[in-house]
Amino acid sequence: MVRYRLSNATLATGRPPIPQAYQWADAYQATHDRPLLDMSQGVPGVPPPQSFLEALGAAASSPGSCGYLPNVGEPSLRTVMAQEINIRYGPDADVTQDDIAITAGCNLAFVAAVTTLADSGDEVILPVPWYFNHEMTMTMLGIKPVLLHTFAKEGFLPSPERCAALITSKTKAVVLVSPNNPTGAVYPPSLIAAFAKLAHKYNIAFVLDETYRDFIINGVPHRLFSRPTTSLEGELPQDWEWRSTFIHLFSFSKSYCIPGHRVGLVCASPNVIPSLNKVLDNIQICAPRPPQIALATVVPSLRSFVRETAEAVAHRHKLFRERLPLRWKIGSQGGYYAFVRHPFAGVHANEVCKRLAQELGVITLPAGFFGPKREENATVMDEDRWIRFSVANVDDEKVEQVCQRLAESESEFGWNLD
Ligand SMILES: Cc1ncc(COP(=O)(O)O)c(C=O)c1O
């Protein structure tokens, strides 16, 4: 017991859900032949590139990297990342180092962006299933998440028309994640352009978390950084200038396999950066310096590493698709994740994930972790039957083992199948 009171905002915020899944797995007796198989948290399945580790070692042992930095980060990394964005979204994407602020991870990039945009009592539109840290952040800040439901029959793609109907005078932003967490849905460039157009029309911000952008191996994620005359989509307003509306968030955790070093970025108008800077000054001062120095020297040489990692993950997605038992249905797949409907009639995915972890040693996350809390005894609906599998975590052999254990669950759990 403590004698002091906690803030209502933190009390109202849900607990981080991933530890719950690991707790289920505590009951599993792993053996050499039947190891625990973890497809829960989205973590890179391969180590970071050696050249990064060497550059980091040198940077970390230099007294010059021990001091504070400007809030928005190491200038050399800002320059390099502007260039990387122009290459990734090119050929004529227009981003400069003045548009970039380096943050201590993409979660912090989101906290900084949404704090800069919205006040307590304001509304921000958020698709469901949501990335739980987005919802938790907003709840903590007193910002109301307005839910834009997405549906399996639409491949979990959000609808700009339904979004338009949710906009009110209190709406400050719409936040999307593509490739999505948790559904894996990759939003087509034309859909992203339609949301940009909507945000432009209503003078609200369009925040796109592109943590998994490098796992799109065919084509560009979108064309928002270019002028509309060069847009392939033709969806953007004629006077489109990305800085007026768009905020891009990125994480170094997945593309460069360094989640523990906490590096992310916000790419936004230089007119917004001074306000963002005030938030950054309070919550991070600056992001960790040695990884920034190391990244600035190696990122341009890591394009093939990033590409090969993404191709390996795409291959694993294909393997997962091929090996998944027939009754388990993939609703969408991309980035790190596959969103899968389990085959047990009338059973909540929470229950299925719990037994998968406890009895069969497969850790996954149920859809219930990515949406509003539902009544304990509510009738199980289709939306309650989805499970997120992080295919990036494991190697090909483990993907096969997971699929084998899913097949076993059909007979072992004793539940009715569809
Ligand atoms: C959509 C999304 N945004 C942000 C993050 C967190 O990224 P970082 O490690 O850079 O904070 C994740 C991590 O899983 C994510 O899925």
From TrEMBL:
Signal peptide extent: none
Cofactor(s) for this UniProt protein: pyridoxal 5'-phosphate
Ranges for domain Aminotransferase class I/classII large: 36-406
CDD domains per the UniProt record, alphabetical: AAT_like
Domain of life: Eukaryota
Keywords in alphabetical order: Aminotransferase, Pyridoxal phosphate, Transferase
Pfam families: Aminotran_1_2
InterPro entries to which the protein is assigned, alphabetical: Aminotransferase_I/II_large, AspAT/PAT-like, PyrdxlP-dep_Trfase, PyrdxlP-dep_Trfase_major
GO molecular function: pyridoxal phosphate binding; transaminase activity
GO biological processes: amino acid metabolic process
Annotated family: Belongs to the class-I pyridoxal-phosphate-dependent aminotransferase family.
Name of the molecule in the record: PLP-dependent transferase
